[in-house]
Specification:
It contains three helices and twelve strands. The chain is mainly beta and 174 residues long.
Length: 174
């Protein structure tokens, strides 16, 4: 299994208690959906390694887990490592909801300016994520927020937006 075939679930943060339990930070919208999770891939030295565990409880985005067949010291050595799951485990989204990895390569159309470019990536800033859209040799950054996104068309691979007045011009005029 490669990282391209997976999505990042979160990471292993720290030990919990003295019995070898670990805390997972689940970087997802609905952490409770993962209460019955019994395995995940852990990135170790660039490779994805499967590990099995039991989720003991979930509180917000934090899950306390007990690894199978690991000593407390072996479990603690995984702190700081990222967690991954196969893409086919993601629930299918509809309407204007989308996964960031899903829209890379989509054409962006502004209701006022028309076609503005292709999504190269999504930059995840703490305040809000941004579409990185290439228009020729110029990068346009558009906030990924509900009021701006008007329509996601998966068949046509387009996203229609209504950018704030003047935002696109800031990038194209320079």
């Amino acid at each position: 299994m490669t990282k391209e075939e997976c999505y990042r679930l979160g990471n292993i943060t720290k030990p919990f208690g003295i019995k070898g339990q670990m805390v997972f930070y689940l970087d997802v919208d609905s952490p409770d959906d993962y209460a019955d999770l019994d395995s995940a891939f852990v990135e170790v030295k660039g490779a994805l390694v499967p590990y099995f565990f039991k989720v003991d409880n979930i509180n917000g985005n934090k899950a306390v887990v007990t690894f199978e067949d690991l000593t407390p010291q072996e479990a603690q050595a995984l702190a700081g490592h990222d967690l991954y799951l196969p893409l086919d485990l993601l629930p299918e989204l509809t309407g204007n909801q989308f996964y960031f990895h899903e829209v890379t390569g989509f054409k962006v159309i502004d209701v006022e300016k028309g076609e503005i470019g292709i999504i190269q990536s999504i930059i995840e800033y703490p305040a809000q994520p941004l579409f990185s859209i290439m228009n020729g040799d110029k990068e346009i950054l558009i906030p990924v927020i509900d009021p701006i996104i008007k329509k996601v068309d998966r068949e046509q691979r387009t996203i229609t937006i209504e950018a704030p007045n003047g935002l696109i011009d800031l990038y194209l005029e320079s």
